[in-house]
Amino acid sequence: MSNVIVTKFGGSSLADATQIRKVVDIVRSDPRRRFVVVSAPGKRHGDDEKVTDMLIEYGRTQGLPRLRVELRLKLRFQTLLDDLGVALDLSLFFRTLYDAAARGNTDLVVSRGEYLCARIVADVLGFTFVDALAHIALDDRGRPNMALTTELLGELPEDRGYVIPGFYGFMPNLKVKTFSRGGSDLTGAIVAAAVGAKEYENWTDVSGLRMTDPRIVSTAKRIPEVTYKELRELTYMGATVLHEEVIFPLLGTDIPIRLRNTNEPSDPGTIIVGDEHVSKRLPGSIVGIAGKKDFTVIRIEKGLMNQEIGFIRRVAAVFEKHGVSIEHMPGGIDTLSVVVASDNIAGRRNAIAHDLQHECGPVRVFTHDNMALICVVGTAMAHTPGVAARVLQSVARSSVNVRMIDQGSSEISIIIGVENADFETAVHAIYHSFA
Ligand code: ASP
Q: Is 277 helix (H, G, I), strand (E, B) or coil?
């Protein structure tokens, strides 16, 4: 492992010249920060536009509407260049954008925010610009090709600093491919793994993860340390700090991710580590509570279903046939519940009920909407009696009815289902019983 730090800056850290100057100060304050990954400029204030959204609109429109977006983009970037004193001719950039849109190459269009931002930041920093189109290798499904990326980044001389645009890479056919939204986080993780970084810093406008959504509990405490697996549980259930796939390039490496705040660089933030590096926790403590609303539970009842070999497979196959992803499958004696996101089964309910009857029948099928799921996460809850009881007691004390309980065998999370209307009350109650 090298002593290089990979630093990734999100859109709000690059929104204007003032923010970019903060980025420059942060990078320069530690010579180990040799690989900088950037998003496209984000919003400068609440009702501003993200450059990526403008580019998406550019790709979707034509004629006058496209011209209007183009003008807004030109103004946005020219202001940035002028404020930073960077001399870069934008005409070639806009010609490429126009050609890409004309060819229907949406990924190329949408990736240009990161591209130009990286060019600008490299210029201000005096670092070398390294295009993701030549160094971030993907397979034909758009997933990272770590071996090739490691080789390509490994060819860069060690005595320099580099700025790499996030959010895209190249496929085996050499075409550009963008990740899903927020994907620059993933680029940061790929680069960190490829160069064997000492740490992957992810700089945004918040000082790390909070124990729960501050829109629900405004005083929610900062989480000092979380494991990759805990983070995965939290982000899957709605915590939106990092891109969902960010941990995958880092699994099996010793590289921690540190979430930091560009506007408060001295805040310690949150460190995300592998299971082997977790510091000692209080038994039974939790790290966070996440949750989402709008799930539907389909309860299937059939006498002696436990004796029917292949029953679960047949149920799952019906959902697969209708392209519905199953989130959870808690079971009971003679009942099996399938929890799905409500918008995922819209328009397919009757067909699913029909097929369940046909494939698994005779069964009784009940559907219940407006369910919220709350996930309580913590490695230290494993092998510790009383955590589930504490969760349930706190919810009961706030007079909320628990409709479903699910604990995975890994014992790092407990999921409960409550009515949508009780969601915030239940999160409050659980938070205050553990915080
Ligand atoms: N600019 C892209 C987005 O807005 C990717 C990123 O910022 O990570 O989603």
A: helix
